[in-house]
Design brief:
The chain is of the alpha+beta class and about 170 residues long. The chain has two domains: about 80 residues, no CATH class; about 80 residues, Glutaredoxin (3-Layer(aba) Sandwich), CATH 3.40.30. About 50% of the residues lie in helices and about 10% in strands. It has a four-stranded mixed β-sheet with strand order 2-1-3-4, with helices on one face. Helix 6 packs across helix 7. It starts with a helix and ends with a helix. The relative contact order is 0.10. The structure holds FE2/S2 (inorganic) cluster (FES). FE2/S2 (inorganic) cluster (FES) binds next to helix 5. The site of FE2/S2 (inorganic) cluster (FES) has 11 residues, from helix 5.
């Protein structure tokens, strides 16, 4: 019975994934390779687990008339793309030198401690994935992190805890 339910869940995940990938592809004319990065970005953003599955990449390859290997090669060049499922919120801590000089490692340590995960991991409740990134373009307010599309600068340990707690509260009430 359990196996049957697991199989049903897997089929439902695959169908949902196919729907969201098709929705994105509909917005782009076929065979226009210049749209590749925009397509990958849209698919990743619209995926509830913020990643590019093999099935999604295969659908993109077919849509653009490109080799799957070529698409994987291009996508893997950019750190913003993930090939494994991530949490509902993706935290990216800037690890470039200006932020490092102003305490980026303290930011990362505080997040590791607060979320009880290592860099690259997702919290047990699936809410946060913790990653590092190169310069986020906000060096003037270093140290910096982004959570999803929102940037946070001038970070302190207390502010990090406050931000994480606020997001947790908002998620509980939404
Ligand atoms: S070095 Fe961190 S935002 Fe630029």
């Amino acid at each position: 019975m359990k196996g049957k339910n697991t199989a049903r869940t897997l089929v439902s995940i695959m169908l949902n994934e196919e729907v969201h990938v098709n929705e994105v592809l509909k917005k782009y004319p076929p065979s226009i390779r210049e749209n590749l990065l925009d397509i990958l970005h849209d698919i990743q953003e619209s995926d509830p687990h913020h990643y590019l599955s093999n099935e999604a990449l295969t659908a993109v390859a077919t849509h653009l008339g490109m080799d799957l290997a070529e698409i994987k090669g291009t996508a893997s060049f950019y750190s913003m793309f993930s090939f494994t499922p991530r949490g509902k919120h993706v935290i990216r801590v800037c690890a470039s030198p200006p932020c490092q000089l102003l305490g980026a490692s303290t930011v990362l340590d505080k997040l590791i401690d607060t979320l009880a995960v290592k860099e690259g991991e997702t919290t047990a409740d699936g809410l946060f994935t913790l990653e590092t990134s190169s310069c986020l373009g906000l060096c003037g307010v270093a140290p910096v992190m982004m959570i999803d599309e929102t940037s946070y600068g001038n970070l302190t340990a207390a502010r990090i805890v406050e931000i994480i707690e606020r997001i947790r509260r908002e998620d509980e009430t939404s």
